[in-house]
Write a structure and sequence with these properties.
By secondary structure, the protein is mainly alpha-helical. It contains 16 helices and no strands.
Amino acid sequence: MVVEEYVQRVVQSIIQQSVSKIGRIRETACKCIKMMLSIDNIRMYIAQADELSRIYRDEHDFIQDSVYLLVTPLLVYNEYYHDLICGLILSAGGVSEGTTLHASQALMAYQMSISKDIMSMERYLNSVAELFDTGRKVPRIRNSVLRFLPQILSKLYILEQSPDSSKALSRIIQLLTKVINSKSISPSHLKWAITSLCSLISCNRNSQTWCTATEIVVRSLLNPLPIVRRFAAEGLYESLCLLDVDEQVLILLTDTAWNETTPVAISSIHETTQIIKNILLVDDPPNLRQNKLLSTL
């Protein structure tokens, strides 16, 4: 006997699987949804059944990676929003080139469609933060989120001028900080987390979000691992070169031997990092820049 109150939740979970990384899983998910929709005393408890019938018509379509765009119209329905966003992120952050390409295109197209709607953007980031938080200790989920997060954070659109207004974004930054501060984290995870924070350096420089992201990336210049130091320097350079910053910072980032491990080199790296920190975050912090600007008006 079907437990009525569980029907909708089962469908939501299957819909998440219908945008899985694996074509045969997507195919099976489509078959299951079609079967449930074909039974009247089950269909009556499924939200937006007619729309589901329109999308889940042919399970063979779901083997193809191009199916992700077919499913995104369901994002307008509250019942399927979170599960679908989570499923798409897991696929977009995968390792299969075809899957990641098409899932990423679907998500980025959706993110563009809500680019001017601050409430929709906040809702979207809430789902991202929730998936990130619940999946931090599950490698399959954590890795996918970390791989795709830089793309999400590099296109915040309406939030770029007022990133501090987003509680979801603040939560994501806190989670990234935990990743970077973890003593057992791998270099690849550090790389993804640093890339995500570098994406936020394009936000309003007078924001706390900018300060926090920049401070963490600058701190990563002192990481014990040479590969992480070098990557942090490269990411910071790429993020800052489009901004109005002291040219000395860019020169230091490119000229310093971040890979070196000799005592002399490490001492030089510490001195260089302190100079960069002073220029970006101490000598001319956001609130001071804002006060300088106001004083000239």
